[in-house]
Amino acid sequence: xxxxxxxxxxxxxxxxxxxxxxxxxxxxxxxxxxxxxxxxxxxxxxxxxxxxxxxxxxxxxxxxxxxxxxxxxxxxxxxxxxxxxxxxxxxxxxxxxxxxxxxxxxxxxxxxxxxxxxxxxxxxxxxxxxxxxxxxxxxxxxxxxxxxxxxxxxxxxxxxxxxxxxxxxxxxxxxxxxxxxxxxxxxxxxxxxxxxxxxxxxxxxxxxxxxxxxxxxxxxxxxxxxxxxxxxxxxxxxxxxxxxxxxxxxxxxxxxxxxxxxxxxxxxxxxxxxxxxxxxxxxxxxxxxxxxxxxxxxxxxxxxxxxxxxxxxxxxxxxxxxxxxxxxxxxxxxxxxxxxxxxxxxxxxxxx
Length: 352
What we know:
Blueprint: E1 2-6, H1 20-34, E2 38-43, E3 52-55, H2 70-83, E4 90-93, H3 100-103, E5 110-113, H4 121-128, E6 135-137, E7 151-154, E8 173-179, H5 186-196, E9 200-205, H6 211-218, E10 227-229, H7 238-243, E11 245-250, H8 260-267, E12 272-275, H9 280-283, E13 290-293, H10 296-303, H11 311-321, H12 324-341
């Protein structure tokens, strides 16, 4: 099958450090190629892929301080994809609503995976404008603010089975991984670790938009003796970081659409203590891959139950539910349904 993948331009694919959507697009793209499909990846030129790379600019937007209007780069990419639409059997977009107008006006089947929150009024307005557009959700909970969209499937994220693996290291701390922002709950993680009497290691990105929040709310907490701030880490650093943790703390306070860090921890055999928000009950299996709690008190109480969890079973659940192969197979099923319903002729064979 000839497949176009449209990736965000803010980070390379895969991202060098933090970057959830770009990491998922990379995992999907590489697995589709491994399955024998002919994939073209529309992304920044510093991306690394076994697919055909259609470089939309030299480097990721986040790395280029000269960019004044990032929207212009997205509009150009959408135009480039539309001009080449006839080359593909299916077009798969990961850049929200930007391409919908053009893609609806051409004949190649397409779908859009929505990777973010949908509980803002502007999102309901814009997405309901495209009532016939096929959308994929990354959790069932993500759909709730706009249930009437043309949802064709929920496809949970996955990643390569061997990207992150358990390491033979001693567990000596709690881990916090991801991004520092109000909704991610780092302040809660610091308090939970303090009450449990366990060190907390923080491997997180601080966006410029969250710098004031960090300086005002988080920085004063970082001087506590049980907290160590590491900063952003790469995939190569994650196995040891996560394997060395008793648990990943995920005390979120927002409708998390998926939460990639949960399955990254599971890949390392590390259980997760997560607040029951958004997708968490769909990703986590309470009492098996960690504990789903409602508040800080329950999180602290769950700490005493961590030894009851089998880290080998945590890893096994990752292998069963969250591999890139499973994700790619789910998407290929969607692609085939959309192509068939579009009345396209039989797809030409692709050499395997």
